[in-house]
């Protein structure tokens, strides 16, 4: 997948612009088009991305992905990531002492799924670089969990420790998958499981190395409500909304959203289409 990603991002810009990001969150995101930290309107992220939604046909992808076996590779990767996420969510359900299929039944493997494979590329240097340059602004992810693959031990990923209020480096290892718990889990568990606030910073050097990563965003099915799970641990629990609320939209209101509504609100805040 990383080989494919490298080949893709080195295609000429006009080639990549043929599949620009669409409303359904599929396609190419050019450098400076997305700002993951919606509380900071001044800086845009210095990254390119290619989002691959749950596929129905090969034509939705650039020609490179239709070459010998690449389409099959992407599909296989998608299915493997989905399966791993379902395994993790099953253990989580067991931990909360609810029906072990509770989360599984809320993440259907079908065409309507909003799951995304996201190839990410952070160029070595950029004409867009300014004093406030950041590779990916502070944010939490919008679904239930995210699998994050980093490549060639290039650092930069940091998670925010909400207790000590410190940013902590996530040291990359080639064979390691970072698992981010995301917004839906925070809603479902009244903040028992926190949505991980994270960012990617620029290495402290004049011409930083380029960096590749791949994320798999596991999303609840669109109509699933982000309401507390029927676990005994939720009964007397009060949902404490800490300052992280500014990263998670609509914490101010008590209206229970569907996963699809929440995703749309968050995407609208981060993209300049
Ligand atoms: O590139 C990374 O390591 C993180 C990317 C990320 O957090 C995102 O795209 O949501
Ligand atoms: Fe993220």
From TrEMBL:
Ranges for domain Fe2OG dioxygenase: 113-220
Family: Belongs to the iron/ascorbate-dependent oxidoreductase family.
Keyword terms, alphabetized: Iron, Metal-binding, Oxidoreductase
Tagged with keyword Lipid metabolism: no
Record organism: Didymodactylos carnosus
Keyword Oxidoreductase appears in the UniProt entry: yes
InterPro entries: DIOX_N (IPR026992), IPNS-like_FE2OG_OXY (IPR044861), IPNS-like_sf (IPR027443), Iron_ascorbate_oxido_reductase (IPR050231), Oxoglu/Fe-dep_dioxygenase_dom (IPR005123)
GO molecular function: metal ion binding; oxidoreductase activity
Name by which UniProt lists this protein: Fe2OG dioxygenase domain-containing protein
A Pfam family that the UniProt record links to this protein: 2OG-FeII_Oxy
